[in-house]
Amino acid sequence: MLRNNYRYFIIFMIIVITIINYIDRGALSYAQAEIIKEFNLDPVSWGAILGYFGYGYIFGALFGGALADKKGPKFMWIIAGTTWSFFEIGTIFAGHIGAALFGGSALAGFAVFRVLFGLAEGPTLSTMNRTMANWVSPKEKGFAVALGLVGTPIGALITAPIVVGLLTFTNWKVTFVILGIVGFIWVAIWNKVFTNLPEDHPRVSKTELEEIRRADILIKGETKLDEQIHVPWYHFFKNPTLVFNAIGYFAFLYVNILLLTWTPKYLQDEFNYSLSSLSYIGMIPWVGAIITGLLGGKISDILRRKTGNLRIARSWFTVVSLFCTAVCFMLIPTVESAAAVLALMCIGNAFNYLPNSIYWIVVLDTEPNKAGTFGGVTHFIANLATIIAPTLTGSLVAIYGYNAMFTAASIAVTIGMIAMVFVKPGKQGNSSENNVVRQDMA
C-alpha cells in the first residue's frame, strides 16, 4: 500500500516537523515566568522578546522559499531544521551573553538569538509549499496542504503539556536543550527518506507518479508544474490576487501568533491559573483548530470539484471563515468568566484555521512553478504579524489592559476578510495558455 502512496509518508514527516517547529516556537511563552524573574523583565520588554522572533522569521520565509525553488526543498529542510534546533538550544545562553556583551542588557542578547531562531524557522512553510508542488496531485492539493499544516495547531495544542511537563521536572534551560535535540533527530531521518522529486525516489511507483502528474484533472485557471517555465520573483507584486491573499494570511497569523505568545501570560494574570494548570488549560484554544484545519482543505477540494470555480472554493470560503473569527474575538471583551473566554477563543481559532491551507493553495493554483518563492513572499508579508501581534499586544496590555488585544485581533481579521474578497486564484487568461482542461468530476 505504501508503495503506491509514499507521498503520504512524506506528508506525515512534514506534519512531524511542523509540530516540532511550533513546540520550539511556543516553548518560550510557557517558560516566561522563570525568564521574566531571572532577568527582571516588564510586559513591554517581554512583548519585545516575543516579537524579535518575527524579524528573523519574515526574512527566513522570503529567502528560504526562493532557495527551496533554486536548490530544492531537501536542501532547505535540512538547513532550516538544523539551524533552528541549534538556536533553540542557544537561547539558554541568550540573556547572559547579552549581559556580557551588550552593556549588561539581557534584552539585547535575547534579541539576537530570537532573530536568528526566527530566521532559521522562517523557511518551513514556504519549503513545505514547494514540496507539495513537487509531490501531490492537483485534485488533492487542498487536503494535502491541510495535512501538512495540521502540525501547526497540533504543535500549538501539545506545546502546553509537553513544555509544562518538562518545566515541572527540569527547568527552562534543560527543556530547550531537549527540544533542540529532537529537531536534530528529525533532520537525520529526513535526510534518508526524502528526495526533491518523486521521480527520483525508488519507493514511488509508476502508478503513484502518474497520479501525481495527471494533467487531465485540472480545472479552469489551474496550472501544472513545469520547471522549464521561468517566472521572475517580482511578478508576485504584479498579481493582485497574490498580494491580497498575503494580506488575508496576515490576518490568520495575527490571531495565531497572539494566542501562541500571549495566552499563557493572559490566563495567569487575569484568572490566576498556575503553571501546572496551563498544561491542559493552554490546550483549549487549539482543540477545534486541529479539526477545522484538516476539514477546511477537504471542504475546499469538494467545492473545487463540485463548482469548478476556484474563487468559490478558495476566496469566498475564506471570507466566511474570517467573518466568524472576527465575531468571536469581538465578543471576548464582553464576557467575564474564564470558561466563556476560553470557549470563544476555541471557536474563534477553529474558524480562523478553517481556511489555513487556502493561503498556500492559492499560490499553488496560481503559480506552482514558483511555489517556494511566491510562498516565501506571501509568508514574508503575512509574518509581519509575528512582529506586530506580540509587540503591539505588549503595549496595548500595558496601556489599556487585556481586552484591547482581542479588539485589535478582530480588526486585523476584518482587514484580512476584506482583502480575500479580491482574491481570484489561478491563471487569468486563455485556456491553451494556461493548460486549462476539463473539470475533474472524479
Could you list some keywords that capture this structure?
disordered C terminus, 442 residues
Can you tell me about this structure?
It contains 20 helices and no strands. Residues 430-442 have low confidence and may be disordered. By secondary structure, the protein is an all-alpha fold. Helix 1 (6-30) packs across helix 12.
In short:
75% of the residues lie in helices and 0% in strands. The chain has 442 residues and is an all-alpha fold.
Summarize the topology:
Blueprint: H1 6-30, H2 32-39, H3 43-71, H4 73-90, H5 94-101, H6 106-121, H7 123-135, H8 141-149, H9 151-169, H10 172-193, H11 206-212, H12 240-271, H13 275-281, H14 284-307, H15 310-331, H16 338-353, H17 358-366, H18 371-382, H19 385-400, H20 403-420
Helix pairs in contact: 1-7, 1-8, 1-9, 1-10, 1-12, 3-4, 3-6, 3-7, 3-18, 3-19, 4-6, 4-7, 4-10, 5-6, 7-8, 7-18, 8-14, 8-17, 9-13, 9-14, 12-16, 12-17, 12-18, 12-19, 12-20, 14-15, 14-16, 15-16, 15-17, 15-20, 17-18, 19-20
